[in-house]
Amino acid sequence: MRALRGYIILTVSILVFGCSGLEVGQDYDVNTDLSGLNSFAWKSEQQIKTGDVRVDNPLLDARIRAAVERTLSANGFRKDSGGTPDFAVSYVFQIRKKIGSERVRTSVGFGVGSSGSFGGVGVNTGGGVSEYDEGMLVIDITDPGSGSLLWRGTGTRRMPRRSNPEQLTADVDQTVDRILKQFPPQPK
């Protein structure tokens, strides 16, 4: 029974996270060669406070930093703890209010009374409007000497209304992984 419950939770999680609506993008100067980058360090050990208690969360900061370090390391980059890194990493996380609407659907129904003398027509145009939170994570790769931006990756997704530490960690890991899959950009 316990195995069945675990299987059901795993299946639902895959469906939910698979349909999470995570969108990623990147920007960089196409004339800059990023192929020689090997080591990284954090631009700052302290995250800048935003004034939003949902964002200024040391637990969230630790999750994001751990995911970035883990993903960069898995992609062959090494963290430089005291020397001169090839690039510096920083991030910004924001939560914004968004308005969404359902697709407008039109339907028509006809009905005829039992004796054929009564009938009706119904028309539904549907389409509810709701407010939701969208999270946006921006990861910047900068030159540690000049501070100039070399690469920027972004990820946006709808935030769950309620969450738990496991769900937050999974969401952060997935978002960071998908953003950093784009780095370094592949030549076209």
Protein architecture, described:
A 6-stranded mixed β-sheet has the order 1-8-7-4-2-3, covered by helices on one side. A two-stranded antiparallel ribbon has the order 5-6. It is 27% helix and 34% strand. Helix 2 packs across helix 3. It starts with a helix and ends in an 8-residue tail after the last helix. With 188 residues, it is of the alpha/beta class. The protein has a domain of 125 residues: 2-Layer Sandwich (Double Stranded RNA Binding Domain), CATH 3.30.160. The longest helix has 17 residues. Helix 2 links the parallel strand 2 and strand 3.
Q: Can you tell me the overall shape?
A: elongated
N-to-C SSE series? HEEHEEEEEEH
**CATH fold topology of the domain at 22-98 and 133-180:** Double Stranded RNA Binding Domain
Mean pLDDT: 84
Biggest sheet, spatial arrangement of strands: 1-8-7-4-2-3
Backbone CA Rg: 24 Å
Q: Could you outline the blueprint of secondary structure elements for this entry?
A:
Layout: H1 2-18, E1 23-28, E2 39-42, H2 58-74, E3 78-79, E4 87-101, E5 107-112, E6 119-124, E7 129-142, E8 149-158, H3 165-180
Parallel strand pairs: 2-3, 2-4
Antiparallel strand pairs: 1-8, 4-7, 5-6, 7-8
Helix pairs in contact: 2-3
